[in-house]
Specification:
Low-confidence stretches: none
CATH architecture: Alpha-Beta Complex
Helix content: 40-55%
Strand content: 15-25%
Largest sheet: 5 strands, mixed
Structural class: alpha/beta
Radius of gyration: 14 Å
Order of helices and strands: HEHEHHHEEEH
CATH superfamily: CinA-like
Mean pLDDT: 97
Length: 164
C-alpha cells in the first residue's frame, strides 16, 4: 500500500488536535522509521503545543541508553518484538514530559528478515500515562519506503484511537 506524505501529515494534524483537546503532550520512540513519524508530526504548524520529543533509537545500544530498554529483553525477544516495543514506549514516557507515546521497531528491508520475522515485520506499542500499554505486531508489504510509511501511519492511527 502506498501511503503519501500528505496522508501522514493529515493524520498527524488530527492526532495533534486530539492531544490539544486532552491537554496532553506526545513522545515518539522510533527505530526502523528513523524519525519519519516525528517529521510527519512536526510538519504540522503549531505541533510544539502537543509534540514533546522524539527518540530515534536505531541501534540496540541507543534503545538501552536513551529509553532504558533492558539488554535482557533485546537478547531474549530481539529488537523487533512487542516486548521491546513495550519497553521502548515505557522509556519514552519515563524520559520525557509527555503523557502519551508510541514506539515503532521493525525490519523495513530489503534485507534483515528471518523465517520468524520476515521483512515487513514491525512491532508497535502505545501508551498513555496511567493506562495499560497496548502493543501489536504487523507484517507490511512493499519496498522499504512503503513498509516505513505504513508503519508511521499505523503508529499515528492507533495513537489517535487511544485518545480519550
Amino acid at each position: 500500500m502506498d501511503v503519501t506524505q500528505a496522508e501522514l501529515e493529515s493524520l498527524a494534524a488530527e492526532l495533534g488536535a486530539a492531544l490539544l483537546r486532552c491537554g496532553m503532550m506526545l513522545a515518539a520512540a522510533e527505530s526502523c522509521t528513523g524519525g519519519w513519524a516525528a517529521q510527519a508530526l512536526t510538519a504540522v504548524a503549531g505541533s510544539s503545543a502537543w509534540f514533546e520529543r522524539g527518540f530515534v533509537t536505531y541501534s540496540n545500544d541507543a534503545k538501552v541508553e536513551m529509553l532504558g530498554v533492558r539488554q535482557e529483553a533485546l537478547e531474549t525477544f530481539g529488537a523487533v518484538s512487542e516486548e521491546t516495543a513495550r519497553e521502548m514506549v515505557e522509556g519514552a514516557l519515563a524520559h520525557s514530559r509527555a503523557q502519551a507515546a508510541f514506539a515503532i521497531t521493525g525490519i523495513a528491508g530489503p534485507s534483515g528478515g528471518t523465517l520468524d520475522k520476515p521483512v515487513g515485520t514491525v512491532c508497535f506499542a502505545w501508551a498513555r500515562a496511567g493506562a495499560e500499554v497496548v502493543s501489536a505486531r504487523h507484517r507490511f508489504s512493499g519496498d522499504r519506503r512503503q513498509v516505513r510509511a505504513q508503519s508511521v501511519q499505523e503508529a499515528l492511527r492507533n495513537m489517535l484511537a487511544l485518545m480519550p
